[in-house]
Design brief:
Radius of gyration: 14 Å
Number of helices: 4
Distance between the termini: 20 Å
Oligomer: single chain
Structural class: mainly alpha
Helix content: over 70%
Strand content: under 5%
């Protein structure tokens, strides 16, 4: 979790904090879908997958 916070999200871990969207507000969700925040989430997902892969590879090597 520490690496995730430090390397990927600048200390944030909750989706609504990362993209500043209230997921219970229809208008905010609609705005999110047409914004660059969506691309930001895709990038975070890729970085997170890479980090998880590194952790799994390290665990397997031990």
């Amino acid at each position: 979790m520490k690496r995730f916070r430090e390397e990927i999200t600048d200390g944030k871990i909750l989706c609504h904090d990362l993209v500043n969207v209230d997921w219970t507000d229809f208008n905010q969700v609609k705005s999110y879908r047409g914004s660059d925040k969506r691309e930001y989430c895709r990038v975070l997902t890729g970085k997170t997958a890479k980090l998880v892969g590194e952790i799994l590879e390290k665990a397997q090597a031990e």
